[in-house]
Amino acid sequence: MIQLETLPAALFPGQDSLSWIFQVIFTLLFIVFVFYGQRIQMYIMVREIQGSLLRLKYIRDEGRKIAIATIKEIGKPEADPAERVNQFLEYITIPPESMDPAGVVWKLEHILDVRENRFKDEVKLMAPAADKTDINNLENTLEAAAALNLIYKVIRHFYILGKKTLSLYIIMQIQMILPLIMREAEAYASALKAFSYGQPIGDGAGALVAAKLMHGHRKRKIEKDCVVAKVPLESRTAYVIKAEGPGGNVGKPGEAIKRVVEENKGKISTIIMIDAQLKLEGEKPGEVVEGVGAAIGGPGIEQYKIEDSILKYKIPINAVAIKEDIGDAVSPMRKEIFDATEVAVGLVKRAIKEKTKEGDTVIIAGIGNSIGVGQ
Amino acid sequence: MRKAAEVSTRRFSSIILIVIIVVLALSLAALYQAYELFVLNDPNMGYYLLIGIIGLALSTYMLFQTRRQIRKFTLKSPPIVTTIICPECNFKNIRNFERGDYILKELGQCTKCKGKMMISAIYREVKEKVKEEKVFT
Ligand SMILES: [Zn+2]
C-alpha cells in the first residue's frame, strides 16, 4: 500500500540523477503552467491566427492575380493594369451619418450610386475593349478582390495588435470568429472565380426563376439596370422583373417595382418576390419555402422602396425563398439550387392561382445577381 | 512590419524545437533506464517505461504539429457543366463551361433539325464530403 506522502518518491524511485532530473522538470512544469499557462494558451491562439492569416494572404494575392489576368484577357489594356487594380482594392466608401436618421436611405443610395459609377468608370479605363457585360463582370470580380483584401487587412490588424499588446481579449475575440471569417473569405474567393468567368452563382436563383418565366416574351428596360416583361400567366397578366443579364448586376428592383406599380396606378393584386435566402445549418440547400414580405437583401434601400410603394396602395406581398448557405450563394450555382428554381416557378404559378382572380395584374420579381443568366 | 512578424515566428519555432529535442532526449534516457531496471528485474521499471513512452509520443506529436503548418494552399475550382438543348427535337448536349456561356443564350442551329439550340442550364455538381446530420432531420 502506497502512502500519499510517499507518492512522489514512488513515482520517481531510486536516488540516481535521472529521477532527480524528472522531479525537477515536473516541479518546473507545474510552476510554469501556474504562472504562464494563460500566456502559453495565448501563443497557441496567436499561432492559429497566424496560420489563417497566411491562408488569407494567399487567397487575397490569388484573387488579385485572377482579377488582373481577367482584365488583361478581356480588356486588352495598353498599360499594365496592376497599379490601378491595387488602387481599386483600397477604395473606401464612407457611409452617411445617421445621427438624424430621417432621409438616410436616400443619402445612402446616393453614395452607393456614386460609388458604382466611379467603379464602372475605373473598369472602363482599365479594360477599354470590354463590352457592357464584361464591364459588369469585371466590376464584380474587382469588388470580390477588394472584399478579400479588406478581410485580410482587418485580421492582420488584430493579429499585429494582439501581438503588440499581448492582450488576451484582443486575440481571443478574433480567434473566436476566425472559422466564420475563413468561410466567408473562401466564399468570396470562389465568387471571384465565378465572376471572372461569368458563371451563374447561387444568389442568382431568383433572377433565374424570373428569366424562366419571361423567356420568349418581349422585354423592355426599366430603371435601373432591370428588364420587365408583360407575360400572360394562368389567365392573369404578370409583369416579370429581373436584373438585366448576363452581366453581373443586381439592378434596382425596388425602383422597377415602384415604376410598374405607378404605371398601373396601384392596380396590382399581388407582388411575388423570389430570392435566395441564407439557410441555417441542417437545412437542405435548394429547399424552397413561401412566406410574406419583401424578399430582398442588400443594404436595405430597395426593400425600403418596395415596402413604401406597396403601403401606399395596400398591395399584398408574397415571398418565395430558395435556401442556400453563404458559400453556395456566391459560388457557381450548384445543381440542387438550379433544380430548386423549377420548383420555385411551380410555387409562383400556384400562388398566383390561389391568391388572385382571372384577369388580375400581378408583379413577379426575381431578385439576385443576374451574372450568367440571360432573359 | 511583415518582416518583424516573420522573424519572431522563426524564433518561436526554434524554442519549440529545443523543447522537443530536450523532451525526446529525456524520454530516451527514461526508456534506457527502464531497460536497465528490467535487466535487474526491478519492478520500478514500469514507471520509467511509462514516462519514456509518454515523452516519446508527446515529442513526435509536437514535431508533426509544426510540420503540418508548412503545407500548400490551393484555390481549386469545381467542374461546371453547360447543358445545351434543342427545344424542337429535345436533342441534348452536355459539355464543360466556356467563357461567354449564359443560361438562355441562343446558339446556332441544331445538328438534327432546323431548330435553334439554347443553353438551358449551367451548374456545378457537388459531391457532399461531410456526412449530413442524419438524426436531426
Ligand atoms: Zn433539334
Your description of this structure?
Chain A has 375 residues and is α/β, with parallel strands linked by helices. Chain A folds into 2 domains: 43-197, no CATH class; 202-366, Rossmann fold (3-Layer(aba) Sandwich). Chain A has 11 helices and 7 strands. A 7-stranded mixed sheet of chain A has the order 1-2-3-7-4-6-5. Chain B is α+β, with helices and mostly antiparallel strands. Chain B has 2 domains: 2-73; 80-124. Chain B has helices at residues 2-39, 45-69; strands at 80-85, 92-96, 106-109, 116-124. In chain B, strands 2-1-4-3 form a 4-stranded antiparallel sheet, with no helix packed on it. In chain B, strand 3 and strand 4 (116-124) form a beta hairpin. In chain B, helix 1 (2-39) runs antiparallel to helix 2 (45-69). Chain B is rod-shaped and about 95 Å long. The two termini of chain B are 50 Å apart. Residues 1-11 of chain B have low confidence and may be disordered. The A-B interface holds A 10-14, 16, 18, 21-22, 25, 43, 47, 50-51, 54-55, 58-59, 62, 160, 163, 189-190, 193, 197-200, 208, 211, 215, 245-246, 282, 331-338, 372-375 and B 1, 5, 8-9, 12, 26, 29-30, 33, 44, 47, 51, 69, 73, 75, 77-78, 80, 97, 99-105, 121-126, 133, 136. Bound molecules: zinc ion.
Short description, anyone?
In chain A, β1 and β2 form a beta hairpin.
Contiguous low-pLDDT stretches of chain A (5 residues minimum) are none
Strand numbers in spatial order across the main sheet of chain B: 2-1-4-3
| CATH structural class of the largest domain in chain A | Alpha Beta
Quaternary organisation of the protein chains: heterodimer
| Domains of chain A (count) | 2
Give the strand tally of chain B: 4
Radius of gyration of chain B: 32 Å
The CATH topology of the largest domain in chain A, please? Rossmann fold
Number of helices of chain B: 2
- Gross morphology of chain A is elongated
Helix content of chain A: 55-70%
What's the helix-strand series of chain B?
HHEEEE
CATH superfamily of the largest domain in chain A: Peptidyl-tRNA hydrolase
What integer value in Å does the Rg of chain A equal? 28 Å
Number of structural units classed as domains of chain B: 2
On the 0-100 scale, what is the average pLDDT of chain B? 77
Strand fraction band of chain B?
15-25%
Could you give the count of β-strands of chain A? 7
Number of helices of chain A: 11
